[in-house]
Design goal:
About 1% of the residues have low confidence. The chain folds into three domains: 183 residues, FAD/NAD(P)-binding domain, CATH 3.50.50; 147 residues, no CATH class; 72 residues, Alpha-Beta Plaits, CATH 3.30.70. A hairpin with a 7-residue loop joins strand 5 and strand 6. 47% of the residues are buried. It has 502 residues and is α+β, with helices and mostly antiparallel strands. The longest helix has 27 residues. Helix 1 packs parallel to helix 7, helix 1 packs parallel to helix 9 and helix 9 runs antiparallel to helix 10.
Length: 502
Amino acid sequence: MQSTPIKHIVIVGGGTAGWMAAAASANRLPKAFCKITLIESDSIGTVGVGESTIPHIRQFNQTLGIDEATFIKATNATVKLGIKFDNWGEIGQSYFHPFGEYGEITKGIEFHHYWLKEQALGKCSSIADYSIAATSGLNGKFPVSTQAKQTQFSDYNYSYHIDATSYARFLRKYSETRGVVRIEGKVSNAHKHQNGFLRSVELENGQTIEADFFIDCSGFRALLIEKQMHSKFIDWSEWLLTDSAVAVQCERNIPLHPYTIASAQSAGWQWQIPLQHRMGNGYAYSAKHINDQQATDQLMSSLTGKATSEPRIIRYKPGRRECSWVKNCLSIGLSSGFLEPLESTSIYLIQQGISKFLELLPNKDCAQPIIDEYNQALSHSYEVIRNFIILHFHLNQRSDSEFWRYCQNMCIPEELKNRLDLFAESGRTDISQFGVWPAVCIGQNLRPKYYDSRLDTFGNDEILQYMQQTKSKISHALANMPSAEEFIADRLKIAQEAKVSI
């Protein structure tokens, strides 16, 4: 018996989530197979305040056939090699969370064990010295791929800082060129079949649009997944205390740094995201520990250039939907869940949700095993990333405010506790976990008790020589790298000359 395929998908909401969903669907689903309609209103703003991303966005763009130079020009993008964390351990300390591993995995032993052995031998080098991403980033350089391949340190990756509004506009053009139909309007209601599946959405002007499948990209409003399908929200505020942010843009009058800065403050943390034409700034804070005016004043006093926008307050609640997919309704983006923006995972979770849906592409009946598989996968991703973000707050050694003392002493999820205990004892990590654990743990002063005992089969001089050679190779590569500014200028020149059409 053959089931009926989905012939019409309606996406409710635009912004980054809506247009990423539209672009990916248009790329994967032929126009003859499925019609795609996106409904959005110009009068409804988006949360986008300028985005810091992780390397998976490059895969998304490549899958869509988007040329990097064209993308960089269209979104005012700059490159990102990781995140620099200030004051997250003790006040005055900094560390770098790079995209990529440290050094090499040699003889099956992770490189941070070599660093721990070096420390035991009395050396005081920073572990960042052994990361080409960290070293390049902190020096304002960018390791282009051809140079990286000439060294033994090609295990690095990079991402972008982008103007999220420009990215959505770019993907809109991409999508409409490939047959996506955009309808201007606000969804005011929805109608269901007797079996509880959505039948149609109704706009404020009375227009009704029927479809076989609906994707809710309406942001925190969650117009379909919550208000129609009644999927519960699981609140994670007990672990992630920040519930507000104030954001503002300013002139970028300092040299381009190819990394995001996340600076811990008394009641949360501030971000600094460099774009080509401006600097994105924000303070994510707990409204229980600081009021809006105090947070705004603190942010405005820390700007590196003249403000070019008015500060904007954003409210949010960390957590996820119990089910991101119910019957023929799928939630993507903020309607599905929200995590601290600390590790720049918002666009990644959008991308993962879209990719998983297209991988499992259901028929019109939306069989429950497919829905269960999707919900299980997305729930796991949210929880793994949640734990990695909690780790940053929990490992702080600050005693200057109630906010940080609570984070130090709070009861953390059992899985996270077990993994922290494992690392603290043996330095072991799990590659299935999100992020570079050694960077964050060591950066915030959690050092394992023991290095891998197999290293004692090597002579001490052999270990020290190997470590010195590692640093020398990175230093040599660094000397021949362009600056991040030069790399972006080169890509803009390529885009200008090519005039690539999307």
